Amino acid sequence: MSDPLHDQLRSAVRALCADFGNDYWQAADQARAYPHEFVDALTDAGYLACLIPEEYGGMGLGAQEACIILEEINRSGANSGACHAQMYTMGTLLRHGSEDQKQRYLPGIATGELRLQAFAVTEPDAGSDTTRIRTFAERRGDSYVVRGQKVFISRTLQSDLMILLARTTPRSEVEKRTGGLSAFIVDLRDAHDRIRVNPIDTMINHESCEVFFDGLEVPAANRIGDEGRGFRYIMSGMNAERILLASESIGDGLYFVGRSADYASARKVFGRPIGENQGVQFPIADAYMDIRAAAAVRDEAARAYDAGETRGEGPNMAKYLASRAAWKAANVAMDTFGGWGMASEYGIERKFREARLYMVAPVANNLVLSHVATHVLGMPRSF
Ligand SMILES: Cc1cc2nc3c(=O)[nH]c(=O)nc-3n(C[C@H](O)[C@H](O)[C@H](O)COP(=O)(O)OP(=O)(O)OC[C@H]3O[C@@H](n4cnc5c(N)ncnc54)[C@H](O)[C@@H]3O)c2cc1C
Longest C-alpha distance within the chain, in Å? Predict the structure, then answer.
């Protein structure tokens, strides 16, 4: 059943995205340029602050509405990857940040004066095993001094603030391997002489970087919640991240299906539309149904998240199903467009590359299978 407010939101985001067509995204992709104009337009319209409560200047909406925004962005052919962190990091700050932190940062984020676009968890030696991260924040009086290295930290150069996960107690000294990790808000504007940032060239235009921390001082007042409980806080933020990125995949999937159905209906070969051939139309219909099924699981997870659910089952399943549905639709679009799928001007090959990311990030799909096998079905852990 459709909700009139959700329908209005969809139409408004669609209208904004219509000003940023394939030419815009194609040019940004080819130049490896950050889409500032698009991100500014989203910020000015308030969408990147949709999860910030109204008392701090945001829209005060929930995960369900954030899902609609990101889905519509990707469905239009755009790439939410330029700015999605401002939404998915919000869960950690809103659910676990102090009132002082919310007062200090949320109003600035809501107006666009401050950008919270960087989320730093992954490290080269730890990979998917987050509990093995080694970046260390050592307490010294009223501050922590951070040393270590992160990798694939997206939009570090386009952000004023970063949410950082670091060890505050060595792994060998904690009872549970998830203990001894803490989360911090890092003000990157003060950090220039103590961090080094090297962009990583990737197959998509994603502004990902290696980040080296060389004795960066972070005030203790910027630690989120209790020392040593950061893994828990980051995980609750990650549930939001999985639901929101599932929405991007659903948007990608609908983009591929829409483009494929249109092209298959218009393109004539052997004297008739290629879409009359069931070998062409059935895979498009099949991909569409997978996307709808993933969207139903995503909707359930988003509703539960808004109602306070903290378990990872729904968000993980939504992310897994949506990323696979989008990837299937991407391949169907490639087949439908024939050689033109590979021509940059059509946009399909760019979206094909972008859609592939979500099979790996923010969590590799094998790790989701492991989560469901062990946490949901109760089977023994393999690691
Ligand atoms: C473009 C891009 C942007 C990113 N942005 C960010 C960001 O902003 N912030 C951030 O913190 N991270 C970011 N990441 C990192 C991303 O979250 C990781 O790449 C991802 O979590 C996988 O980690 P890894 O690359 O180290 O792979 P690995 O952990 O080395 O895994 C490699 C492969 O082995 C498989 N594997 C590993 N262990 C097991 C196991 N026990 N059982 C079965 N299979 C296993 C995985 O499924 C995967 O297929 C980004 C990555 C990319 C590519």
Answer: 78
Q: Which CATH architecture has domain 235-376?
A: Up-down Bundle (1.20)
Find how far residue 102's CA is from the centre of its chain: 22
Cβ–ligand 1 contact at 206 (below 6 Å): yes
Across the chain, mean pLDDT equals 96
Ligand 1 center from residue 357 Cα (angstroms): 10
Query: What does the DSSP 8-state code read for residue 202?
Result: -
Q: Hey, CA dihedral for 80, 85, 88, 90, is it positive or negative?
A: negative
Overall fold of domain 4-111: Butyryl-Coa Dehydrogenase, subunit A; domain 1 (1.10.540)
Is the minimum distance from the CB of 208 to ligand 1 under 6 angstroms?
yes
C-alpha 135: how far from chain center? 22
Q: Which parts of the chain sit beneath pLDDT 70? A: 1
Examine the residue annotation and report whether 309 is marked as an active-site residue of this protein.
Answer: no
Say if pTM beats, i.e. exceeds, 0.85.
yes
Tell the burial category of 19 from Cβ atoms under 10 Å away from its Cβ (0-12, 13-18, 19+): exposed
Ligand 1 centroid, distance to 287 Cα (angstroms): 26
